[in-house]
Amino acid sequence: MFPIFIRFFGENGIENRLLDVHSNATETAEDVTNLIKKSLFDYNLDPQLFTSFCADNTSTNFGGVKRRGLNNVYRLLKNDVNAEIVGVGCGSHVLDNASQKGTDKLLVNVPRLAMEIRSHFSSQSKRWAKLGEFCEFVGEIKHEPLPSHADTRWLTLLLLVTRILKLWPALESYFRSTDDCSNDLKKMFCEEKSAYYQCYFLFLDYALPMFNANDYTFVESIADIRKLILQLTAKSESTFFGFQVQKLLEKIEMEQGKHIQDRILTSFQAFFKRTTDYIQEWTSSLEEYGDRLDWIMLEDSTAVESVDEESLTLSIATISSVLAEDHFIGSDLLEMKETISSLRPNKDFWELPIDKKWRILLRNKNFRVLSSFIPKPKRKSVYKADFAKEFHGIKKGKDDYHAHCIPCKDEINLTAMGKTAIKQHQEKPKHKENAKAAATTSADGTCSKMGIATTVMVEANIDAICELLRANPRTTFDEVEEKSGLSRDTLQKISHEKLSAQKKFCHFVPH
Prior knowledge:
mainly alpha, two-stranded antiparallel ribbon, 25 helices, 53% helix, globular
């Protein structure tokens, strides 16, 4: 399966949409490229509006870490679609792989032991119930399930490690009282070795949160990776890895000797050294863009003070293919700087995410030149799939908005139709003149389905639809028909006319 997402700067800031889902048996670079080109063609999307291609860091997609191959999706897209496309490897994959490479440098295979502990209890419910008794006996320890983990699932190792550490006293008592376990687990929790193994679990509980990145823009991800590299480099030369680790290291030194403590510290430093090298290797191709686009993050009011006409031009050329030689932006740079400086006292502005900041600035008259370089999609009608293929909004955190196109049967939702189309209907005066104006005539002179009678019925029942959608955004088509008294054809016509009128890029609507 090949899902194709698009990310764009819209009226609400950064937005994400699922464009299409394809299936392909061969999975060759040429076939994947053709699937992407097919989606662009099907939805009438101008390839020149695309700035970057983001995918997993496989040879099929990018041709290896050096990106020198000719038969990969990135190279074929540059040749066939847009020569200026920037290749952006998946940052989440890079960080996840880096943490896995780092754990290989540890003297204890924490991921394997963590999964073995979970497997021991998940295979027999009696064992899990017995552990619950030890949780009560040891003290106030919550008998919580151990989350699953696999190498291909991001971030789950940290969850499993953290849960095991919470259960550690109960696990010690359990495994010391039973022979019904592997030799590795028996050795791990024995009195002589427990502190040694716990030290490695605590180390990963301390280190792994550094790799848990949030949903960043392209510019933010580059800056964040730079900060992470500096942080990891410093840790590779450090001997302090959290207070709990420090306490256990002191205990190990007293009980097992300083040479054991030194071996543990060396493996911890090797973890950070290996992760740093891996991240630098796989993100080196993005460094040139970071130098050009750092100021766009607007971390504070001084962010643009060092920006001159040359650096601004390079920034625009990086994100836009419409830069012409006759554009003069030097005279507008001063006005842009003054506008940003005037926002210095506004603390609320500087706490906004980067896309929300630019959403505000690009509406300012002093940014009219810069906003003119942002590609404007051509208004083309796009009709593909059923009415059921709508966008369902999902909140992620406080300010991040993600929407996914979910192919589902006979479904209508508040985000796409209810919030926009219904609002437009409510604002329309309920007069006969409007009903007459809404009537359309076909080529043979007869009224269409959205004629006078139908329009009056729509106006009379629109409140019922609105209330229904507010109460349940995922209301089915049948329920809307029943509550509103409108036919399916009428509802489809509303969806077609109202949703296609939205001035948002890539809000696709059905026939």
